[in-house]
Amino acid sequence: MDLLRSLPLGLYLEAPVTWLHQLDSRVKLAWLMTFLVSPIWANSLWRFLLVGLLIVFTLTALIPLRVWRQQMGWLLALCLVVLLVTAVMPDGYNLQYAPRLPQDELRFQDHPPAAPQPEPWYQFLRFWDAPQDPDRANRSPDRVSLDKFQPYHYVLWNWGPFTVTRKSVQLAVRISTWLFTLIYGTNLFLLTTPPEAIAATLQILLNPLRQLNLPVVEVGLTLTLSLRFIPLVLEEVQNLIRSVRTRAIRWRKVGVKGTIQLVLLLIDRLVENLFLRAEQIASAMTVRGFTHPNQHQVLWHAFQLRRVDWFAIGLLVVLWGVRFWQGQAD
């Protein structure tokens, strides 16, 4: 089991270099915030559009199939389960649903209706005559005007204790699509952006906070180290899993109590190894003379907007225009 290949969460894909890699990290951060913020007060069509855009970006960037196949598959399956479960759950209104119009409408007539006349034998040959409703003449004008509208049903499906309403479907679409855009959009950003570029971008955005004596440089350095530390965590977890599988433990003989003790022992070993790795990184920085971020400025990434970046910015402006034009919630 290779976690670094099967579960590339928060890892940077160095090769192949796609068009997503070539975009400026500031532009990609703006697109990421668009995927995270624009679903607020948006309709269902816009939410599905964002999901489709993420899938199109992945396919057109020609990212290797081994990188996103399992991740997108499991995530789509999770979102589908969330969609189905939320749709059949109560919508939170706690109302007794009733039809909009009464089933048995009262009618006041001065004289009884005339007996229906039998249709002539050649009536089936007159296909150009539309069939008429015999009760249409006895209806009120308001009732006749409502015949052209489709019937409205708040409860879409009901079977035993399970009820699907319009509100529950809307809520299910919101939760499932938001979950997909949140997880996969963030992972795609981390997959195509170097950690140094992410830290430098956030440091530029936080530069105005220096006026408040906030340690902006320290925050950027900490973020860079934390992003670089994620592969080390996955590597330690992978090594522990391999060590357990090598010993061929018979879990049935161990029992539940023994399994819990073994899991706690592995967690303790994992935390100990991670602290050891962190201490090694700190020692390496100290040996190299690193004392303070302000005294050892390192140019992590050189920012330069190119034509493809300006084109992406233009598309982002158009996307927000479509959002305010057609993406507002009903």
From TrEMBL:
The keyword Nucleotidyltransferase does not apply. It comes from the Bacteria. InterPro entries: ABC/ECF_trnsptr_transmembrane. Keywords: Membrane, Transmembrane, Transmembrane helix. It is a multi-pass membrane protein. It is found in: Membrane. Its main location: membrane. The chain crosses the membrane at residues 45-65, 72-89, 171-191, 308-325. GO terms for cellular component: plasma membrane. This is Energy-coupling factor transporter transmembrane protein EcfT. It comes from Lyngbya confervoides BDU141951. The lineage of its organism: Bacteria, Bacillati, Cyanobacteriota, Cyanophyceae, Oscillatoriophycideae.
